[in-house]
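name: query_chain
kind: protein
chains: 1
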Amino acid sequence: MDRFLAFWSTPNLKAWALVWLGFAFLPTTINAFTLLTEYERTNQDIPGWEPFLREYSSGIALLLVLPLVRWSINHAPAWTEAPVRWVAQFLATALAFGTLHLAAVTVVRMAAYGALGQGYGLDDLRDDLPYEIRRVLLTYLLIVLVVVGVRHLIRLSRSLALLEAAANAAGSPGTGAPPAHAAEPGRPPGTEPARVELKVGSRRVYLAPAEILLVRSAGNYIEVVTAEAVHLVRRTLADFQADLPVAEFVRVHRSHLVNRGAILRIDSRPSGDMDLTLRNGAVIPASRRYKSELF
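structure:
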């Protein structure tokens, strides 16, 4: 239970609470009233509480297994990098999600029916199984499509905003010339750069490595994050890492490169992965695959 509660104590708790509200509580409430109306219309003699118990038990079960969906989405490889693995992971998660959801539904219903002096067993589950399987798999598919789609839209809108800002600032005076202490292109191997050059649209921005908190992949671009701004640069993460001091910057995820000095806290997950809290308040994932580089 402690791990379950710790899992939900994350900055995006409200977003996932809305996912549960939209895909569990509201639909189950509507379904319960629909079933009650249908039973009354066909003169079926059933207790008025039964449709609500059946529907809300499914909603409670979804709440219990929703962390599995969140974990799968957060740890899925990029579609463009590994499409087969991406599909395989979500198919495996769908199977696990359906199995765990049905098990949780059964336990909740058996407990609730028992508390009300009624019985709910395997025969009842067998009757409910076709309906439950269809609904669970459809719910899982919709959650994945909506969450992944919204995340991509947010990333796209952010990238477009950065490009627009870069284009608007392109004509600003004094942004094209490097400062006197900028990094020289021909610096000797093994020496640390005084400045790192970023080609942002038609501008060239020069940053001291210590100013960079985080670098993350954004499609064909990278986002270089400082305390004041986010710079969108058309480069790969591995290529940009080669320009940074080896002792100061570490790869913590396939899509994240972080400044060691920017890390305020490291929280371990039961899976072995970690969450890094940076000094600007951002929380980023750190994969256990890169643990040896971080420590």
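note: Strands lie at 196-200, 203-207, 212-218, 221-226, 230-233, 249-253, 256-259, 263-268, 274-278, 283-286.
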